[in-house]
């Protein structure tokens, strides 16, 4: 397994639409976010997709839908296969206000957390793959009305997913909804406790006590399963929250620093610059949210 030695945000332009078939085990080493939405179809292998409060252990023919603005990261086991198709798109991709796209976005917005997993059985996956292949071929070949064709196939894909989502609520259907394993429950319990303390003057001993774990075991388990240390996770979470506040509020830097758990504005600025490669003030003046490896 390989990781990209990236920071939380690298200043890049997000494409309005891209679809990629990938087998590389290279993933972003840190938690990250960017504008738009993602659809991930795991064709072979397994991967953990980690969000702020949820962890999904994806296996063959799982399809994950989520808002890319969510704090997220991929974690792979050593020597694991990671064959997937990833679709990224923004609100600007479809040139007209189509009800299928509107309902897809509304579906994610109405969930407790804006991510959802479908599990496709083999006979379902064949139909899904047929639509995906159309999109892959169309993107590779610059033919007449390519953009229009991509929009049409993309809307067909959303229509297919929308209908499968509706079927997933029917216990008599051939589609099963995603159920977390016992191990994933442990992951989510750890994240839940960290969500309580990430913006405080926390200490490892208290966190381990709340979880009823030995602190050394907790550190080992977290690093093994999430790919980073607890300290790194909390720092990245603080920077993520700070970025949102820098974009969405006019809060002074010194107040914002304390709001996200830093003891001083100087330590906040230093940490922010280390992660983002620019000062908070400079970041506030920017509007582009980058794309990272997935």
From TrEMBL:
Single GO molecular function: sequence-specific DNA binding
UniProt key word DNA-binding: yes
Parts forming coiled coils: none
PANTHER family hit by this protein: ARAC-FAMILY TRANSCRIPTIONAL REGULATOR (PTHR43280:SF34)
Positions of transmembrane segments: none
Keyword Nucleus: no
Record-annotated HTH araC/xylS-type domain positions: 188-286
Signal peptide, first to last residue: none
Protein name per the record: HTH araC/xylS-type domain-containing protein
A Pfam family recorded for this sequence: AraC_binding
Alphabetized InterPro entries for the sequence: AraC-bd, Homeodomain-like_sf, HTH-like, HTH_AraC, RmlC-like_jellyroll, Tscrpt_reg_AraC-type_HTH
Organism: Salipaludibacillus neizhouensis
Taxonomic superkingdom: Bacteria
Alphabetized UniProt keyword annotations: DNA-binding, Transcription, Transcription regulation
